[in-house]
Design brief:
Elements (H helix, E strand, L loop, with lengths): L20 E8 L5 H17 L3 E4 L6 H10 L1 E4 L12 E3 L7 H8 L4 E3 L3 H15 L3 E5 L5 H7 L7 E4 L2 H4 L10 E5 L5 H14 L13 H13 L5 E5 L5 H12 L5 E4 L15 E6 L5 H12 L3 E8 L11 H8 L1
Parallel strand pairs: 1-11, 1-12, 2-3, 2-4, 4-5, 6-7, 6-8, 9-10, 9-11
Length: 335
């Protein structure tokens, strides 16, 4: 194809400024994990079966784009159950899990509930319960106030579980029986930070019991490993995700820790601070586990409007994990 030179109104050839080249390295895996896919499918399937409205306690996953999309389809997001009117509309619990008091309160009101808790979070809940039944005090490594932490702590009676946020807190721990402890973790933490905390716990409490398998979810680990591969190769790295998404925040921190000079966590292309990226030749791009691929594509398109973009994928592992829908939705789907 021959491209004809453009001309100005005077008939003279117009001066064209060539776009600077930019190589985008796409991290793989990135974006939706199996737990997020399942949670979104739960809401959409519930809407198809029951019709709108379907109520969802808290954000189903931590991503504004996803939440707004589900709102348009008829999902109503509430903070607490007392915001749900009486009636037959189902109430869905988010992927982060809930304290035991939440379904108990729902049952007392005769609500139809659907649990979209990620199976890997449920695994941590069960571990904590088993340790408690065996008489161990549980130490939960996690971030205060995160919905997953609130839900996990709410699996046990008050005083049976203690939150540990960082290594500095460990020195002050004085459990009643230091030889009868167990630890579990939030699933979306930094792999490296968690390892340091767990090592410190083991040094102070040599007999502490841990999970048979790492609690940090496969998707969190895989996305952080991909960032570790890409971040040292680029001038800047963008994580697509929401500020209240723990796993997305950890991805940005991982990139920063391995020496990437410019790291940003962005919801959408409209948030790009263009002066910050001036002069870059290589850009890393990934997405948190609750960020849809369409937002990654939006970022690429925004850079392509300003740069001559080439895109290469750096893949560290292939994910094939799939979680089935809750039984009540599977049964309906089969009819």
């Amino acid at each position: 194809m021959t491209v004809q030179p453009t001309t100005s109104e005077s008939g003279q050839p117009a001066t064209q400024t060539a776009k600077p080249p930019l190589n985008i390295l796409l991290c793989a895996p990135r974006g939706f994990c199996a737990g997020v896919v399942r949670a979104i499918d739960v809401v959409e399937r519930a809407l198809a079966i029951h019709g709108p409205p379907v109520y969802v306690r808290h954000e189903i996953v931590h991503n504004k784009y996803v939440v707004e999309s589900l709102k348009r389809k008829g999902a109503v997001f509430v903070r607490e159950l007392d915001e749900v009117p009486d009636g037959d509309a189902p109430v869905i619990f988010s992927a982060h899990g809930v304290a035991k008091t939440v379904p108990a309160n729902a049952d007392s009101r005769g609500m139809t509930t659907i649990d979209a808790t990620c199976p890997l979070v449920t695994k941590v809940h069960r571990e904590a319960e088993i340790h408690h039944k065996r008489g161990r005090h549980v130490l939960l490594v996690g971030h205060s106030g995160h919905p997953e932490v609130v839900g996990t702590m709410g699996q046990l009676p008050k005083g049976s579980i203690t939150l540990v946020e960082d290594v500095d807190q460990i020195e002050a721990l004085t459990p009643a029986d230091p030889n009868n402890l167990a630890w579990v973790t939030q699933t979306t933490l930094s792999v490296d930070d968690t390892r340091h905390v767990v090592e410190a716990l083991k040094r102070k409490f040599p007999t502490i019991t841990g999970p048979h398998k790492d609690d940090i979810c496969y998707a969190t680990t895989n996305r952080q490993e991909a960032v570790k591969q890409v971040a040292p190769l680029v001038d800047a790295l963008i994580v697509v995700g929401s500020s209240n998404s723990s796993n997305s925040q950890r991805l940005r921190e991982v990139a920063e820790r391995v020496g990437c000079p410019i790291t940003r966590l962005l919801n959408r292309a409209e948030e790009i601070d263009w002066p910050a990226f001036e002069g870059i030749a290589k850009l890393g791009l990934t997405a948190g586990a609750s960020a849809p691929e369409v937002l990654v594509e939006e970022i690429i398109e925004a850079f392509a409007a300003r740069y001559d973009v080439t895109v290469d994928t750096v893949s560290t592992v292939v994910e094939d994990m799939v979680f089935p829908l809750p039984r009540e939705l599977r049964n309906e789907a089969a009819e």
